[in-house]
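Structural prep section.
Before we set up the soaks we want a predicted structure of the protein with phosphoenolpyruvate in place, mainly to decide which crystallisation condition to try first. Input record follows.
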Amino acid sequence: MDSIIIRGNGTLNGAIPISGAKNAALPLMIASLLSSEPLVLENVPRLADVEALKDILSNHGVDYRVGGKRPGDAVTTGRRISFRAETIVDTTAPYDLVRKMRASFWVIGPLLARCGEAKVSLPGGCAIGTRPIDLFIESLKALGAEIDIDAGYVSAKAPNGLKGAHYTFPKVSVGATHVMLMAASLAQGDTIIENAAREPEVGDLATCLNAMGAKITGIGTSTLKIQGVTSLHGATHPVLPDRIETGTFAACVAMTGGDVMLQNARPELLQNALDVLKQTGTNVEILNEGIRVSRNGGDIHPVDFTTEPFPGFPTDLQAQYMALLTRAKGVSHVKETIFENRFMHVQELARLGADIAIDGQMATVTGVERLSGAPVMATDLRASMSLVIAGLVADGETEVNRVYHLDRGFELLEEKLSAVGADIKRVSA
Ligand SMILES: CC(=O)N[C@H]1[C@@H](OP(=O)(O)OP(=O)(O)OC[C@H]2O[C@@H](n3ccc(=O)[nH]c3=O)[C@H](O)[C@@H]2O)O[C@H](CO)[C@@H](O)[C@@H]1O
Ligand SMILES: C=C(OP(=O)(O)O)C(=O)O
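Run finished without errors. Recording the tokens verbatim:
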């Protein structure tokens, strides 16, 4: 099995191109199930999750073609992929395919809306909490679906089509909002979704659906209004830049010091996280080309933050920022409110010399003078990345195992970090 070897070796300098967002690309790809015409996505990142979803969509009858980048496109890493679901050949998403990735469960929305039925295995995904599906079930029932859960599968039926409804989510859910948006786009009549997730990836999906002929208003707010239409057509849509990758590389530079331009990054997608970064003493400059992050010596200041739904601090950056704070001059507090089990990186950061105490949802991070390299492994994607960040300044060699987690969500990780001066390489055992 591959591992990543990092040697702490000083500052990072240069430029890193930001890829298309994993968490936008996945629901956009799933939206291709809603139309018999091609949905062309640009700037699709090369990630294990994208590959896994291609297999799942193929099983339903989606034909995909990978094209080159657009002429003149500044992004060198993304791809243009055309997805076409001319006919849906199978409305079942089997366990073997769905277990690899949580988002694959979301096919339930478009399959149900287009075919009147779907049978989807209960999902897998990052081991960060129990991750129930009650909000999906309740919101689809509000649209008139009949739902049955048996033998690890959710079977949904709407033989006479879905009907528009007024539904208020009792809790903000990104995935359940994606699914309800897709389902309501092809429902009869109007739907109002209240307490919808406002994450930029939800807005990206809604914008793409509108380009396909959907009628969605309120994009970017917590109230989405959808006028159902009878069919959707093809469209071309660029995947949003990855705000989590942006925040992650920003944390790398804050950790090592140096000066890096995050090309194509968009500050409005992670304002809260950039504000927290500034409080650590890191410079953040917004330029036409992207976001420039620099820190020239001096201490990392301690800071307190709490994860919250957008526009709050994203849970998907919690582990990476915690890694940064392990080297702060003083005590920081990190509160995780989205997932109940998202401190799995703490134990591994401790192996590198970090001083972190956990009490329920709160982690107290006491900065240390020095981290020292060791073999480590994490149980999820962002946790793995926190170990890479710590490894960038640790003395000696840090070996991060279970690299398949990183491959789910960080495109060309070693290439991008090596290009700005990090000593990082992948080795096969
Ligand atoms: C592929 C993708 O985009 N994944 C992101 C998505 O995950 P995902 O869409 O799975 O996360 P949700 O927003 O649904 O989860 C938020 C909270 O709601 C709870 N919940 C969710 C659904 C449900 O039916 N019942 C319920 O109780 C979850 O357990 C969690 O506590 O948003 C998360 C929160 O920003 C991110 O960390 C993930 O990276
Ligand atoms: C938690 C994540 O992904 P997933 O929802 O696919 O598990 C993530 O991207 O950090």
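Observations: The longest strand covers residues 2-7.
Flagged for discussion at group meeting.
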